[in-house]
Amino acid sequence: MRIETIHYDSANGWSLPGFPEMDSDSTLALVFGSAKGIEGNVPLEELFTAYPRAHILGCSTAGEIFGTTISDDSLAVAVCRFGHTALRSTCVPIETAADSFTVGERIANELAAPDLRGVLVLSDGTNVNGSELVRGLNSVLPANVVTTGGLAGDGDRFQKTWVIDHRNAMSNRVSAVGFYGDHVVLGHGSKGGWDIFGPERLVTRSMGNVLFEIDGQPALDLYKKYLGDLATGLPANALLFPLSLRRGGGETARLVRTILSIDEKAGSMTFAGDIPQGSLVQFMRANFDRLVDGAMEAAQLAKKSREQAGQILAIAISCVGRRLVLGDRAEEEVEAVAEVLPENTRVIGFYSYGELSPYANGRCELHNQTMTLTTLSET
Amino acid sequence: MVHPHLARQLRRLFLDRESPPSPEAWREMVDWVSNTYTAFDRERYLTEHSIQLASSEMQELNAKLSVERDKLKNIFRNAPVAMGTLDPQGGIIDVNCALEELFGFTREELQGKNYMGFLAAEDVAESRAAYVELVQGIRRNNQTQRRMVAKDGRTLLVNIGLTAVRDGDGKVQLLIVTVEDVTEKTHLEIQLRHSQKLESVGRLAAGIAHEINTPIQFVGDNVNFLLGAFDQLLALCASYQTVCQRSIGGQVSAEDIARIKHEEELADLEYLQTNIPTSILSTIDGVGRVAKIVHSMKAFAHPDRGEKEPSDLNLALRNTLTVATNELKYVATVETEFGELPMVPCFLSDLNQVFLNLLVNAAHAIGDVVSKGGQRGVIGVRTYCEQNHAIVAISDTGTGIPEAVQSKIFDPFFTTKEVGKGTGQGLALARSVIIDEHGGTLTFTTELGKGTTFFIRIPV
User: Fold this and answer.
1) Under an 8 A CB cutoff, do B39 and A287 touch?
2) Across-strand partners of B453?
3) Are A158 and A210 contained in the same domain?
4) What sign does the dihedral B181-B184-B187-B191 (CA atoms) show?
5) pTM of the predicted protein model
């Protein structure tokens, strides 16, 4: 397996003098770039032209990760030519977020095969219900297929994202690539690094991703009460205080749910993922150093998943919330990841509107506010 | 030992090298340290604030919990049902006021004692076995009738309900026991059953009197006829004797012979010769019919001896049909099909009452059809054996039971009959006798306008 990473920005152009000659049916080109597009998408077209046979997947971001640097208005590209692994890719339109389950199901059905080992999913970031998309994928794919990925970003604007569909940057699409055969080695890790505080509470009224009541009390009131003086910074600082979510029925896995908006009148809070009634929630707070620790732990997990020799591609998908929270220190988490991964690892990735990665039970879940890593290599 | 976070910053800013750091690196380092302090302040605030809130929430919850606990305790103490809690060995943990009142013991007198100690001696072994089954989880709850001894020595007949309460691992924490005094109720039930029997005997009496009256009447007529015939025969005999004596003296005249002939003609000897034997046979038949009714009546009303006795259900049904003849014959023809049944252990007197209730109901159902201009119906009585059960099926060609009342027909005091015709006790009693006393089942099939069949199934 051969891996090359290339970077493009307006000031410096492509980081390599020419595109590495790696085009084949088992070549995967991943590209993460600005939501607004760069220079009328000319560089993207150049990439497409250079790799006419390759499977090209990509999406817009809330920041491109290239090695240990984070930039905006750039393209982060990784080209991998697999030696013994077959690839199959697909892209499916999604009309409305209500179709998310069906789209997930359809993608999984198109890729499913006995020798399917892993699926990388890149989805539109605003017109999708990530939880339902994952449920659709899980309804078809067996538990031993590693499913990871992320939702495209649009900076901190949350307006319009794109996904590469047959060499076009299109909105309202979900794309995925499947890895087939026993030679591909997939590692994954996903960690938040948020601290919980206050007692764990029961969700007594919610609808989809809107939370109305916890422990029979208006959710927003309780949230504000616990933030105390810090509540005056709402809704701007809501990113610093997400919610930890544990499904009922003795489930131990915790998910992080980011607050998208608050409704003072209804006393409700809207999250970037479902908050099912009957689940248990706990308030969380950001601690910069712990977030960086979380990224390191994710890298440890992705590395430990299986010993990987030869070249490794690490796809880092981190939540836009982390970038907003960490601000200038966002690069620290990418550095921390690179520090943990083996030297022969190339890292590219992006800041996303949601991360997909398996939890302890092996089933893929939608995460918020995590650093999610997928490592790819071949034996 | 440098904190790992600080170590990472030093490494990032090359401050871990020997060479002097750049001013930018220092500035960044100072920023980092300053930010760390700010973050620390914020975290300390949040931690202290949330601990304070959580602890006041906890206090509130504790207060609420204690109110709830008192409420629960009061509910238990003052529940209008005698109840208590037992440990897995049967030791009494707690009892409520109603139980104290029922047995006359105080809570303190009962706590720690074994509940088996308050059972009548003959009930202990069976109770202990049932208790063990509950604790072992073979059963979740248990309802039985037992005799228990109160403080003043009275023996109470009680319904005991026991339920095992288990923790998350399935281990028995305690058992809840409820005790219902049914001594009085049982007496009343016995009285009620007895009075029902009296009531039906009373109701049947008029019909039976009528049934007896008919044969008695023709027996009387026959006897009167025989008396007259006897007088005539005696007179004829006297004439014969006179002629006989005369013939000894050789003095029989032609007039004597003519008079005898005349008397014979007067007595209509031919008629007597034909009718006297018929009359005697008819009298014997009449007396037989009366005897049968009386016998059936006796058999029907025969008191039980307090325990089940092997009985011939076919014979019992025949007797019941006999005593009920007058209730049935004006509206229906009775068709019987008695199969071969073994002797069934039962309280026959109670079963007779059930058969009677069902037969009378059948007649009433057909009566409703007849009174509206319908034809006479058929009451079917069929017996057979099936899977170790004796089955008695009593069917009618009456109105059928409307769906709306089907679920209520076994409820006590439920009746669709007009005032004075039904008390609503018949089927309720039947159900209690068949199910509770005999461990059988009482079911029915019905079709509106076609009729109803009741099935009694009694274990053999």
Assistant:
1) yes
2) B395, B445
3) no
4) negative
5) 0.59
Does residue A266 share a domain with residue A305? no
Query: Which residues of A sit within 8 Å Cβ distance of B?
Result: 195, 197-199, 225-230, 283, 285, 287-289, 292-293, 332, 335-336
Q: Which fold has domain B302-460?
A: Heat Shock Protein 90 (3.30.565)
DSSP of B144-183:
EEEEEE-TTS-EEEEEEEEEEEE-TTS-EEEEEEEEEE-H
Contacts with B42 from chain A: Cβ below 8 Å: 230
Sign of CA dihedral B80, B86, B91, B94: negative
Has domain B79-181 been given CATH number 3.40.50.10610?
A: no
A126-155 pLDDT, tens digit each: 889 999 999 999 999 999 999 999 999 998
How far is it, in rounded angstroms, from Cα A135 to Cα A146?
14
Pick the last residue of a domain from A285, A308, A338. Answer: A285
For the segment A212-262, what is each residue's pLDDT rounded down to a tens digit? 999 999 999 999 999 998 888 887 788 888 899 998 777 777 888 888 888
The CA-atom distances, in angstroms, between A78 and each of A19, A314, B376 are 11, 10, 98
Q: What angle do CA B405, B409, B413 make, to 5 degrees?
A: 115
Euclidean distance between CA atoms A21 and B138, whole angstroms:
74
* pLDDT tens-place string over residues B102-148: 999 999 999 999 999 999 888 888 889 889 999 988 888 888 889 99
Q: Residue A378's beta-bridge partner residues? A: A184
Determine the Cα–Cα distance for residues B270 and A221; give it in Å rounded to an integer: 120
Host H or E run for residue B349: helix B348-371
Structural domain ending residue among the three candidates A263, A285, A307: A285
From chain A, the residues in CB contact with B46 under 8 A are 197, 227-228, 230, 285
Whether the predicted interface score ipTM is above 0.85: no
Write down the H helix ranges in chain A: 42-50, 100-111, 130-140, 219-227, 288-304, 320-326, 330-340
